[in-house]
Amino acid sequence: MAAKMSRKWMLKKAVVVLRFLGTTPGSSNIRRVLYSIVEQINKVYGDDTAIPQELKLLIRTFRDSLSKASNQRPLVIYLDSLDQLDTDDGAQQLSWLPLDLPKHVKLIVSTLPEERYEYFPRLKSLIADTANFIEVPKLDIKDAQNILQKWFADKNRMLTENQMESLVSAVQQCPLPLFLKISFDEACRWHSYTKANEFQLKSTVRHAIIDLFERVERNHGEILVSHALGYLTAAKNGLTENEVEDILSLDDDVLNDVYQYWTPPIRRLPPLLWVRIRAELSQYLVDRGADGVRVINWYHRQFIETARDRYIKNEKIETKLHSVLAEYFLGKWSSGKKKSYVNRSGQKEESDRLVADQPLNFDETSFNLRKLNELPHHLIKSNQLDVLKENVLCNFKWLYVKMKATSLRNVREDFQEALRQYLDDEQLNTMSQLIQLSQEALEYDPAQLAPQFLARITQMKGLEAIEEQARNPPAVCLLPSCAFMTSPGGQLINTLAGHTDTINSLDVTADGNVILSSDDAKSFRVWDTESGFLLKHVETESEIKVVKFCNQDNHFAVSQETCILVYRTDTFAKVHQIDVYGEDEDASSGIPFTVAGGNKDKIVVPCHRKVLVYDVLTGEEIRRVLDLKLLKEYYEEVCIEANGDIVAYYNPMLDKRANLLSVIDLSTSDRRPERIDVYPDVKIDEDGDEERTDIGAVAVTTDSRIIASNYMDNHLKIYDAKSLELLKTYEGNKDDMSQYFVLTPDSKHLLFPNSSNVCIWDLEKGQRSYELTHPNSVDRVVTVKGDIVITAGADHLIRIWDRTRQDAANQLKQRDWTFHKGVTNKALVKTSTPKKPATKKGQKAEDDTETVKDLWNIPFDERHIMLHTSQNESHYYTVWDCILDEPLHRVVLAPNTGRCRWQIVNNQLAILDLNRRLKLVNYITGKIMHVFKGKTSYGLSAHIVNNQNEVITGTRHNRNLKLYDLHTGNVITILKHEEGKKTKDSKSVSELTTKSDGTGCIAVSVREDEEDTLFVWDITKRKLRHTMHLPVQAGRKENEKPTLDLSEADFSSDEHFFCCCLYERNFKTCPCVWDIDAGTFLYKLSHDEAGEGNKVMAVGADKLLTSYWDNSREIWLWSLTTGKPLIRLPGHRKLEIDRMLVSKDERRLVSFTHSSEEREFILWDLEKGEKVAGFTMEETNDIQLVSNGDVIVVSANQIGSIVTFNLSSLEGGKEKLSTENSWSYKNMDDVIVLEPNAGAEDAKEDPDDIDSDEDSVDGDDDKDEEDGFEFSDGEWKSDDEDDNDDWNFSDDDDEDEDGKKVKNK
Q1: 798 touches 479 (CB < 8 A)
Q2: CA separation for the pair 780, 520 (Å, rounded)
Q3: β-strand partners of 549
């Protein structure tokens, strides 16, 4: 009626959009509703723009479409019965509902008011003006009579006077539209001769529905109707017409009742029986959309509740109904399987019920969503635990298909429903926790389920059947050889994935139920702690610095550049916007603030020369405190904390005031803060400037104490907040990093993120422990009562820990040499950082496990790998058999060897670069074969060339190149860039590269200040072959010369092409290709859709792989002969890759990055141009490719050894690996000790060294100021080297943001 009257009310040609929600498949899901509304609006207003399917874009499009309304054509939208919407896509959150409507737009929605339907309470929280809410009044009797007259007229029916009085009287007792409809339908069955006692109506909706059910039962049979409506009510999302018939055909109680007088040739329900029931109830059953099909369901919840009370009246009936439904969706009686029954004569027989098959999927892209969504629910409700585990929740094929067909969240909801009933089932708990820990990987790649299981489960007892499935997975994947990641059942109970950038703030409610987080991508998220589900995700337009719960956790505050936004926790509705800064004083990184007061009902903000206090409920300023030391330029960097009425803050950006702690007591009327000079001592540095110790972190306890510390000694200084007196000092550990202090609610413990773990101080005992070891650095930490700890890591994951549980790291076996060789009777166990009080000196205890350093291929060996590990001060080099997955040979460096670079030559020899001397060693025997003549360069690595017969490197001061005979160590020749010029006047060589396999006969170098020029050397002819220059660009200035980067360079297999990255004058990078034979520049590998190249790798003689580091993060395969792209791979999800490995047969590629933000490695098929499989690790590890790409080897620091990944075959299990062409190593149990350090002997000059590269300007042969190395105690050391630092590596090492070794090519 309202929709019809809209045009008359508005007196204009209004556009009316009307949706009766939940009445059709298209009106049940909010995504489809919004799409249809936008489609209608666009059609009416003449817009043919494509409508997106993705929900976030669709919501934005819906809101934009409202702006099409005009004064001439206003828009009115009616959405009836919000409570009938499915909960899919978070419809009940109302994030899709526009709160600010454009002019000429009206939006009317209706919903039931009860809280259990969620919509009405949420609407009240979102819309403050109560005038916008109109309660639908009870139906006026006159209106009811008018409606009845209209209905009867439409049906061409009339009632007698007595019948109409009876009908109107009943409606007066229950003036509800639903009752009116049911009563009208009943009255239509009356005749003029119907007796008075037969047209008496009930007085409530429920009794009217019962009357309706009783009539249908009388007409069609009680057993048939009760069972049919019972199945319909018990179904999770309704049933299709065919499903109803099939399920009733499996119910022998129904069939025995139907066929009590005859025996049919086919034992199946006659279809007309259900059709008649459906027809009689047609006014109260609707077709809705569910699982991609049209299902029948009740129109109104009153029918659902009444049917449940009538037809599912006890547990026995409920179990039986769900059992039949479970058997049907399980497909137990499909595909010709006969079901037994007892005939009329009492004899047992079998018959095919001809019900539909129930496969998991119909083809590769079409899934049986009905089975996937209905079966788990019915197995749980029918108490079939064993069947549930075997076929659903412990079945890898089921889990994989459901994740792929629906979502990971749906799978987790199945586990939650099951665990509510089977809380103590070990297998269900293990699988549930496994999925929670692996959700980052499974969210986008369900095929990783089996690999994640094998990588995390250490104890397979009781899980043998599941393990067998994991080793024969349903999808192609990479199967690890052993467990090496966090196991279920340990302290880590959940991981929350979703943030795409650094998590910069973290908070949790006092009861621990809700987590609040924000990141540098200008977004914040709200999470449910127990389930790990994301409740709300909001993207803002400016930087966020802090998020905090306030007002007894009923609200939370989010800082922006100029304001603070306050939201309700229950509805996420924005309550206030506190405008702190004006337009000319914004905080580009967000406003720092804290919450204070007994109920955390005050927001405290440091500003220019003042501290402002706001009321959370009103958003009004209630107090200000003057502080002239708060300067405009730096107040956004203030660190501020509070507890109760005590507020403490400091500014780390003020050089001479970063030692001052300011304190405000809000319970007093003081107008200025008090000061504590935490670090009053002043030191004078070498330049005569003052040096002060800066405050690094602060916390305020519940009993008005202030705790402050710094980054240097990390001592805890504890002050009385009232008297400002120093109460005590706890000695810290200089290796810690005091930052972002967090107190337990009782203030008995203090926590802070400390490198890769959490440091926990016992403030009563003055002792600390290091717990909750992470695979990468910890950025933030919060806690609930000290036992539940929530952390945010550099990998953008939020982790939830339970400190009362056993540390799962104790379950990971250290698979080192001792473990495999059985030197001791008991395998070493990898433990987390020791949880024991600090020593008197404040040093952490030494770990007894091996730490992985490097992983190296052995040239021309497709079976073995060398792993470099360290334990305390010892360095081990172990040869592993990657097919048998066991170590064969081990070498340990003698103590005090010093910094040493390794380069593997073959299966016996390696070159060591130690003390600027190259040494050829036999790592099988542990003997030094010879020492190469003369000193090597400071910065250039040695390269094996000329079919592994020679070595090229820089001369001692990098001004030329030096070529050695690998087998004798003698210098063959000096390759000079400029003949006839004095060496000391020559420019230094900054980069040098050759073919990485040691077979190359070409070397390319670049000199300082000539980064646009390549020097090409012919190794076999011992001369400079070409000097290649970049083409001159028109208009290029002298200071805009491009730079060639040889750290990312490669040669084609025949050394005809050379490829490297070019840094252009606009600071963009681009791969470029050169013709070595002709000595000319060929072309840049650029494309309109390709971004900035960051990696290059030649494939064979005529192809090149390039990766890109812009938003695309793609990998392209190019033709070197044509410069045209051949294949385009999508790359990684988060970051650009920084390493590529190609199999020897050139058919497979592995890509990965060392960043903690992107820990997945991916195997690609270069022939098909598609992804084969991937695996997401917990921490960044080094990777190598062996066995022609069939085996991927990963260095696993968690277990101190390697893990091999084998590609599963399509038939299940691993692909069969070839063992041909493998080197034979002596399998020995003894460890070979290698002593390469000659001490001061290495510093002596070789009298027959022909390297005449002149010394540095100061003439000191043992020191180079520019390079920062000096000779001391028999070895070369860096000036800034820590005494405890070890440096044994191969090639050039860098460190990533987490301090982990990163291998450069």
Answers
A1: no
A2: 13
A3: 556
